[in-house]
Amino acid sequence: MRAALAEAAARHLPDWKEKLTPHVLRHFCASQLYFAGMDLIAIQETLGHAWVATTMKYIHVHRTHVEEAWLAGQQRAADRLKGLIP
User: Taking every annotated instance into account, which residue ranges of this chain make up the domain Tyr recombinase (predicted)?
Assistant: First the structure.
């Protein structure tokens, strides 16, 4: 698998040919599954991790995603409070 991955990376992603490993792909896949909405526990099971803390190390979240989620949460809270506070 490593040889096939190295060959594919050299052909299609030359800048990544030395860096792209099965382990890097696990990190990428875990992050993509998370962003697609897959539950963290389901990702843990998929990766075969005993601890969810290990899975969390595999998921890389960009700062803009955190900021957007925070703003969305603030908006939901504000919408719920409308009419409750005079």
Answer: 1-71
Within a domain: 59: yes
Q: Which domain, by its residues, includes 52? A: 2-81
pLDDT in tens, 24-53: 999 999 999 999 999 999 999 999 999 999
The mean predicted confidence, pLDDT, of the chain is 89
pLDDT of residue 46: 96
The answer to the question of residue 86 being in a domain is no
Place of tokens 């969810």: 52
**pTM, full prediction:** 0.68
Amino acid at 27: H
Distance set, CA 18 to CA 6, 7, 26 (Å): 8, 10, 16
Beta-carbon contacts of 29 under 8 Å, excluding residues fewer than 6 positions away, are none
